[in-house]
Specification:
- This protein is α/β, with parallel strands linked by helices.
- Helices cover about 45% and strands about 10% of the residues.
- The strands form 2 sheets. The protein has a 6-stranded parallel β-sheet. The protein has a two-stranded antiparallel ribbon with strand order 4-5.
- Strand 4 and strand 5 form a beta hairpin.
- Helix 5 crosses helix 6, helix 6 packs parallel to helix 7 and helix 9 packs across helix 10.
- The two termini are about 25 Å apart.
Length: about 270
């Protein structure tokens, strides 16, 4: 995809961290492999993981990939095999697992079948995406229980957009049903051009706040977890760089608290360092 090479070459890579590249088709993989061959001496490598994606409705895959679900899975199977033959990890994504912007309510058995096929083609994990952000906790629970009939829950991840403000609740529901990997984005960045009105993914800051002092531990680099205050700084910094509003409720609340307490906003310090 456009800009992939520039981004990969500029990343200050951390040993042990993975930097997945979104690969929509064989051409995308071929371009990535050519780049990796060019920088074969890089240590750690530019990337060791790709992300492949499809959806749970034909209408959405036609809009996003210009093909049906079955056609997309057939194409992705060869992409996954070629990547794994090169020692590259493959993560799969299923879009619109609750509601589709074109056809409405999604058949959860279709989500289950698509997720199973992605696992069978070699994906080490499959992320289930509420792309529209209309999902509610009881629907997330029902969908997960259906998918778990065919896919081990340890191979599943949750991906919840926050269009209707239910993303954090959906995260907590997913955790209660055995999910242990949650996709999130700092400052609530993201969206989907094929899902009109959909906002970004659930904000990392909001997830971190919701899980504080709970029975769940977030794995990270700060004393075994992730520092919420530092993540808030990053969220405000990147939102400023992109000229967009910070969508994190926790981020906005913490910044307001800092101003009330007369504390300096560290996001400006972060900007000066970069």
């Amino acid at each position: 995809m456009a800009g992939t090479a520039e981004v990969l070459k500029c990343i200050k890579r951390i040993p042990g961290a993975h930097y997945p590249v979104l690969v929509p088709n064989k051409r995308g993989l071929d371009d990535l492999l050519e780049l990796l061959d060019e920088y074969r001496d890089a240590s750690p490598p530019l990337t060791d993981e790709i992300a492949i994606f499809t959806a749970a409705t034909d209408a959405f895959t036609r809009a996003n990939l210009n093909c049906t679900i079955s056609e997309s899975l057939e194409r992705l199977s060869s992409v996954a095999k070629s990547a794994r033959d090169r020692g590259i990890r493959v993560r799969g994504y299923v879009s619109v697992v609750i509601k589709c912007p074109y056809t409405g309510q999604v058949d959860y058995t279709k989500v289950r079948d698509v997720a199973r096929e992605l696992v069978e083609m070699g994906c080490y994990e499959v992320s289930l995406g509420d792309t529209v952000g209309q999902g509610r906790p009881h629907e997330v629970a029902e969908m997960l229980e259906e998918v778990k009939k065919s896919v081990n829950v340890r191979m599943l991840a949750g991906h919840f957009h926050d269009t209707y403000g239910t993303a954090v609740s959906n995260v907590l529901t997913a955790l209660e049903h055995g999910i242990r990997t949650i996709d999130s984005s700092v400052g609530g960045l993201g969206g989907c051009p094929y899902s009109p009105g959909a906002t970004g993914n659930v904000a990392t800051e909001d997830v971190l706040y919701a899980l504080q002092e709970s029975k769940y531990k977030v794995v990270g680099s700060h004393e075994g977890t992730i520092d919420l205050e530092q993540m808030v700084d990053v969220g405000w910094w990147i939102s400023g760089e992109l000229g967009r509003e910070n969508a994190s409720r926790a981020g906005r609340a913490i910044r307001a608290r800092r101003k009330r307490e007369g504390k300096k906003d560290k996001s400006t310090e972060l900007k000066s360092k970069l």
